[in-house]
Amino acid sequence: MAAPRLGSVPYRNVAALIEGLDPAPTTLVPARLAEELAAGRLDAALVPIAEYLRDPAAYALVDDVAVASRGEVYSVILIPDWPPQNEGEGNGLEVLRPLWTISLDPDSRTSVLLTRVLAEIGCGTRPKYVGPYEDADARLLIGDPAIRFRQENPDRAVIDLGLLWKRWTGLPFVYAAWVVRREVAERQPELGPFLRGVKERGLAALPRIARDEAELRYLTENIHPHLGDEEKAGLLLFARYARSLPGTPLPAEEPTPVWI
Question: Given 13, 76, 126, 179, which is the most exposed site by the fewest CB atoms within 10 A?
Fold first, then answer.
């Protein structure tokens, strides 16, 4: 197999999925990574799932490899200005009702869409969304910064969006996957088995990859690296909800994923 041009987000939650790749993948923030993939300067990239949903006809997905969660994800959180109320009731979505304004990071497209789906469709509210440095009732924090915040503020109440999604839908949530340009998938279908092999070797090496015990717990207990039937059902449900939100740049038709 010719060496593919691969890219990845620069976050620790993908550590096992790119371990040992040679050459190492290009690492860029999600928005830049999506631009490079769309322009054809990368053959495949481990990107947030929202980037795939923007143009699913142009891409294939690698089967059984994902950054997903089956409950608390720990690293995708809303930080409210006051302790969450009613978080243990029903499906937990009532915790979002007091949030009239939410500060979002525009580079975190999947987490932004997840926040909107949970608030607008799940809870039935219409909060005002503001930029990352504006005053708000809660702010969205993801990835390594979210992990650092929770470690540095262990007593601070937060709203875990992976847990809310699971309570509401009963399904896992898929945050990121290997997205392959369709023409590359047709020309090199062996890329799928290759990247699944990278994942399996990376999972076996997690005790060595993890920087400390806390990160090992996060990568083994919170991050779910598989993309099976339940994850696929969660992905399609999220796509359906996200397409129904006003103002989202997603195709009107439901995606029919091509898997390799």
Answer: 126
